[in-house]
Amino acid sequence: MFGRSKVTDFGVGPYAEVMTHAFDEVQFGAGVSTLFPVLQALPLVASVGGYGRYAPMQGLEPGVAGALFWGSRSYNFHASYVMAFGLLAQFRYGLGPSRETSIVIGAQLDLVALSLPFQLLFNAVRGGSRDTRPVR
């Protein structure tokens, strides 16, 4: 998100997505997201954009999508990567012959969060951080 220099700042930025439904079709899209700092630790992110849906039987169809995300999306003062996890609600409307309408409700979990228990175990077996070891 661009335009943020602290946790309480609004932010705007692009998004891109690639999805599939049962590996029978592929959907790809892009748009713009806006971050609203409702709560310092739990902002609200609203997104709007377009997508394309390709299924072998129907061909390529365009569509529009809108989404709301509420969860952790902190501001990292030292790097460009920020972990994100929270609840997601999305509405998709196809503009092609199928007139597909989808309402998606889900949870977003950053892949790095899944690796944290393994990182903890690895560092525990290794003997912990060198910064916390006693000096001899």
Describe it for me?
The radius of gyration is 20 Å and the shape is globular. The protein has a six-stranded antiparallel sheet with strand order 1-2-3-4-5-6. A hairpin with a 7-residue loop joins strand 2 and strand 3 (44-55). The chain starts with 10 loop residues before the first strand and ends in a 10-residue tail after the last helix. The longest helix is centred in the last third of the chain and has 16 residues, at 111-126. Helices cover 12% and strands 51% of the residues. The chain has 136 residues and is mainly beta.
Q: State the secondary-structure class.
A: mainly beta
Range of strand content: over 45%
The total of helices stands at 1
N-to-C series of helices and strands: EEEEEEH
Cα distance spanning the termini:
46 Å
The gross shape turns out to be globular
Lateral arrangement of strands in the main beta sheet: 1-2-3-4-5-6
Largest sheet: 6 strands, antiparallel
Helical amount among residues, as a percent range?
10-25%
* Mean pLDDT over all positions: 86
Radius of gyration: 20 Å
The poorly predicted ranges are none
Number of strands: 6
Topology:
Layout: E1 11-21, E2 25-36, E3 44-55, E4 59-73, E5 84-94, E6 101-109, H1 111-126
Antiparallel strand pairs: 1-2, 2-3, 3-4, 4-5, 5-6
Summarize the structure.
The protein has one helix at about 110-125, and strands at about 10-20, 25-35, 45-55, 60-75, 85-95, 100-110. It has about 140 residues and is mainly β. Strands 1-2-3-4-5-6 form a six-stranded antiparallel beta sheet.
Which terms would index this structure?
mainly beta, 136 residues, six-stranded antiparallel sheet
